[in-house]
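Need residues for this backbone.
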C-alpha cells in the first residue's frame, strides 16, 4: 500500500537486527521461525522505507567468531548497507546472554567478569564506530540481584559508575564521535535491576565523570512495566537535554516485557508521545525495539515492521490535526487564559517580587470552584483519534444511505 502514511527514509525509522530477527522463542517454547540473515534484514527493511538498522555486537558477529570470520561478516554487512542505502545510527553490546553474565556485567561480584564486560564493550564500540554509529546504548539487563544480602547496593552502583566512566574515557581517548545512552528497566531478567527507571538513570548520569556525553535511551515497555507514564519520562529526558535515543514499542502494564508492535495497545499514550517527539524537535532515530507475534511467519515479521512505521506516521498526522483543530485549540486557549497572567514573575526570584507575593490576597474559594474543562478536552482528543472529528456530515450521509437500503 502507498499513501501518506507510507514510511520514507527521511522519517528516520530504524529497527534492531534482534527485533526483526526475533525467532519467536520464549521461556515456554522454542523458535517458530527460521533465522533471517543480517544482510536480508537490511534489504527487506530498506524496501519498506526504513532508514537504518541497529545492532548488538553479537547480532552480527557471533560470540565465538575469530578475527578472520569477523572481518568477512562485517565486510558483507557493510556492502549490504551501501547497496540498500541503509545506516547504522546506534550500536550496543550484549552483556546478558552468555552465562558469564549470570550475575551481571559491570556489577558482577567477580572483578574478572567486570573486566571482561568492559573489554567486550570496547570491542563493540569499535564495531559500532566502524559501521558509522554515533550513539552507543548500554542496557544493564543483568545488572541487578535476586538476593539483596549478596551485594552491597552502594558498592554495586560504584562498580556500575566505574564501568561507564572507563568506557567514556576510552571513547574520548580514541576520538570517537560517540554519545552514550543508558537504558532503564525495572526487572526481567533479574528480579530487580539497578537504576530501574529513566528518572534513576538521569540522576545517575550526573554522578559520572563525563555526563556531557551520556544521556538516556528510554523504552516504552520498560516504563509501562512499572506502571509509569512514558510521555512524562520522555518529557523529563527532553527537559534535561538527555534524550539521545528512544526505543518504541508497546506493552500491557504490569506484564512481562512484551515488546509489542508500536501503538498496538496504548493508542492515546502513544499519540501524546509522538506529538511530543515531533513538536520538541527531537532529531534522533525513531527506533522500534519490538518483535512480531509468535504466531507469525517471515512475511508476518515484515508486516509487523511496516505496521510499526505506519502507526507512527498515522499518529504524527493526528498530532497535526490536533494542532489545526479549531475547537480543541480554542478550548486550550480558554483553559490557559483562565489560569491568569503570571503577574508575580514566578520564574525569577527577587526581593521585590517575593515581598509582593507574600502580601498578595488570593480568593481561594473562587479559585477552588473554577472548572477546568478537561473532560470536554479529553473527549475531543478521543474523537480526533478515532477519526470522527470533521467527518460528521459524511458519517450522517452514510447512515442515511444505509437506512435507505435497509
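Answer:
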Amino acid at each position: 500500500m502507498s499513501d501518506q502514511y507510507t514510511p520514507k527514509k527521511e522519517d528516520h525509522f530504524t529497527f534492531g537486527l534482534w527485533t526483526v530477527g526475533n525467532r519467536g522463542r520464549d521461556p515456554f517454547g522454542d523458535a517458530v521461525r527460521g533465522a533471517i540473515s543480517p544482510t536480508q534484514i537490511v534489504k527487506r527493511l530498506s524496501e519498506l522505507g526504513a532508514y537504518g538498522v541497529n545492532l548488538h555486537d553479537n547480532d552480527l558477529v557471533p560470540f565465538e567468531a575469530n578475527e578472520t570470520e569477523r572481518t568477512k561478516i562485517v565486510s558483507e554487512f557493510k556492502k549490504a548497507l551501501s547497496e540498500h542505502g541503509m545506516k547504522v545510527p546506534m550500536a550496543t553490546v550484549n552483556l546478558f546472554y552468555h552465562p558469564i553474565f549470570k550475575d551481571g556485567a559491570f556489577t558482577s561480584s567477580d572483578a574478572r567478569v567486570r573486566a571482561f564486560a568492559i573489554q567486550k564493550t570496547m570491542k563493540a564500540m569499535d564495531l559500532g564506530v566502524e559501521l558509522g554509529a554515533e550513539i552507543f546504548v548500554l542496557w544493564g539487563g543483568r545488572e541487578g540481584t535476586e538476593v539483596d544480602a549478596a551485594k552491597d547496593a552502594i558498592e554495586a552502583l560504584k562498580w556500575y559508575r566505574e564501568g561507564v566512566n572507563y568506557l567514556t574515557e576510552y571513547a574520548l581517548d580514541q576520538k570517537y564521535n560517540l554519545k552514550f545512552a543508558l537504558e532503564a528497566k525495572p526487572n526481567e531478567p533479574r528480579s530487580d535491576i539497578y537504576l530501574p527507571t529513566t528518572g534513576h538513570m538521569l540522576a545517575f548520569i550526573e554522578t559520572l565523570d563525563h555526563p556531557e556525553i551520556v544521556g538516556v535511551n528510554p523504552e516504552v515497555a520498560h516504563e509501562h512495566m512499572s506502571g509509569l507514564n512514558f510521555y512524562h519520562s520522555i518529557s523529563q529526558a527532553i527537559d534535561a537535554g538527555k534524550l539521545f535515543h528512544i526505543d518504541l514499542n508497546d506493552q500491557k502494564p504490569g506484564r512481562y516485557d512484551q515488546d509489542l508492535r508500536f501503538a498496538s495497545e496504548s493508542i492515546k499514550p502513544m499519540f501524546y508521545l509522538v506529538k511530543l517527539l515531533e513538536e520538541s524537535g527531537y532529531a534522533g532515530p525513531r527506533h522500534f525495539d519490538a518483535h512480531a507475534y509468535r504466531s507469525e511467519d517471515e512475511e508476518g515479521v515484515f508486516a509487523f515492521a511496516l505496521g510499526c512505521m505506519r502507526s507512527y506516521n498515522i499518529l504524527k498526522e493526528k498530532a497535526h490535526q490536533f494542532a489545526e483543530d479549531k475547537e480543541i485549540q480554542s478550548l486550550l486557549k480558554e483553559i490557559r487564559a483562565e489560569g491568569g497572567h503570571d503577574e508575580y514573575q514566578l520564574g525569577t526570584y527577587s526581593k521585590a517580587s517575593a515581598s509582593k507575593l507574600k502580601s498578595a490576597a488570593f480568593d481561594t474559594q473562587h479559585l477552588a470552584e473554577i472548572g477546568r474543562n478537561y473532560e470536554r478536552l479529553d473527549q475531543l482528543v478521543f474523537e480526533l483519534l478515532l477519526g470522527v472529528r470533521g467527518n460528521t456530515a459524511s458519517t450522517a450521509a452514510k447512515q442515511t444511505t444505509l437506512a435507505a437500503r435497509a
